[in-house]
Design a protein that fits this description.
207 residues; mainly alpha; two-stranded antiparallel sheet; 2 strands
Length: 207
Amino acid sequence: MDYVWYLFRFDGRINRARCWLAILIIMCWMLFLSLVLFGVAHLFGATMPEQFNIGPDRIFAVIDPAAWRSLSSVNPTNLFVLMVETPLFLWVYLATSIKRLHDRNKSGWWMVAFFALPCLYSQFGDRAGDWLGDWAAMLFGLSAFVFSVWGFVEMYCLKGTKAANRFGADPLAPIDTRPSWDPQSEIEMVPHTASPPPVWRVKPGYE
C-alpha cells in the first residue's frame, strides 16, 4: 500500500477497515511523538505539564479569543507539543476521512458538518447561549450532536458504493491478475496439407 497517498493525499477512496486503521495510526503516532517531545523537554529542564490533551476541540482554540487571553498561563511544553502535533494529525485525519467520504460517494465538504460543526460546539457551546440566545444555542447543540452521530455512522459503519464512482475505483474490487495480452488468442495452427510441417501464424485481423 502507498502510505504517502493513504495518509497525506485527499484523492481516491478507502474502505472502512483502512479508515479505522488510520485512527489507530494517529493514536499511536500521537502517543509516540508526545513521549519523544516530552522526553526532550525533560532533558532540557522544561516545566512538564500536569495533564495533556490533544482532543479535536483544541484545534478550534486558535479562533477562540478566550484561549488567546489565557495563553500566558499555558504550560510552554504543552503548547509546543500541541503546535507540532496538531497540524500533522489534523492533516492525516482529514485526508483519510475525506477519502472515506469519497468511498461513500460524498464530497469531502461534508467534513464541515461531520467534523467542524461538532468541534465548534465543543469549543464554544458553553458560551453559545450568551451569544445566540437559549433557543439558538439549543439548536446549535442539537445540530452538532446529530451531525456527529451521522458522520460516525457514515464514515465508520456503512459500506462504500459498489464499483467505481466519481471519485475512483472500488477499493474492495478484486484485482485482475490476468496478463493484458494472451498470445494464444492471436495465433492459430495451420492444418497439415502437404509435405511441409504444420506452422503457426498470426490470425487474420491481428496483423
